[in-house]
Write a structure and sequence with these properties.
Helix 3 packs antiparallel against helix 4. The protein is mainly alpha-helical and 445 residues long. The radius of gyration is 29 Å and the shape is elongated. 77% of the residues lie in helices and 0% in strands.
Amino acid sequence: YDRAVEDYGAAIRLNPNYADAFNNRGNAYGTKGDYDQAIKDYDQVIRLSPDSALAFNNRGIAYALKGDSKRAVEDYDAAVRLNPNYADAFNNRGGAYDVMGAHDRALEDYEIALRLDPANAVAFFNRGLAYEFKKDFNRAIESYDASIRLSPNNALAFRNRGNVYAAKGDNRRAIEEYNASIRLNPNNALTFYNRGLAYSRGGRYEQALEDYSTAIRLDPELAAAFNNRGDVYYRLGQYDRAIENFGNAVRLQPDYSLALNNRALAFAGAGRYERAVEEYDRAIQRNPQDAGALYNRGLARFYQGQFSAAAQDLAKAEQLTTPDLYRILQLYLAQVRAGVANRSEFPSKTSRFDLQQWPGPIVSMFLSGVLPQAVLDIASDSNAEAWRGKRCETYFYVGQYLLIQGKRSEAVGMFQRAVATGATGFVEYNAARAELARLGENDRR
């Protein structure tokens, strides 16, 4: 492209009114990523040929790539005024509208582009994106289907169709789409990242780790891949590795709040509660209304046995979020353990929920004295990972129920059973370990 720019420059020196040479040099600059120089050349084309729809379209592309969608739309407007049958200009304007969040306007342009050019695979792809933004997943899939029929080697179309299937909860189909995308382009970090997400959601953690590692190899600056690899290590109970990965994500993006929060969770999982609280302190100093940080600091303080402080944090977090049965229960337990529980407030807060739905049966145990064994009998799920999590939750909360009643040895047995589930990704797993440590008991039954 540098040599191309030199030759177009020579042509322009020989003929300063050579509009095509300015246009072609602008294209070369655009391909090099020098959008300002490209825009200057397209300006010259428009000066020399003010009726050139192509030049307005190309300058619009350069503005779009610079991130100036508003200026891009203005140029695409000019292009379609000059040539009402310019399908690519309508398609490009749709892309700019999508970036601006005007997805309905974008869809209107894609429809015009497809009416003018029914075989425009890019317009079908972009229409799929717009429907995906609008969460109209079935129409998004239809558009990606059409794009792939017209352009069967477009790896991005397979990846995006995979993203839509993942959003619909169909992990198996999503993985098939990512596989197809990777066969076509084995060097796209985001495709491996997305497949890693799908594997992780399905509990296939070893495959998820491989994909996140490949994504990081392909793009060492992809902070989200470090964060998600850390999340998998956390779920596997490998807390030191989790901490290292979350730390790398924060190094790449110092304000990456999710990674900061996750690192604190990993410190808590490793039993380093003071360090976890320090992390949450910093997050809350930056944003005193950070409900997630307040909630997690409350849990860390609960692990430490600082029940009064835990109750204060959990109460503040509750005020900042929509009602959640788990959080209501955890606040109640902290208040009971701190000796400050309002026994009438707990039934009032939980009355709006359907206690037939999980974790309602656990809450009912605290409300009306349902026998622990009856709760244990309820804790089942057809999904193996979800079943382990429910058992872990049940054992922990039954342990709390027994501990509050003064039945220490029985409570210890329940906490040990919670740990034995190996559900390391659950709050209750780490809470059970903390209780056992505080009671001077080991993790094993």
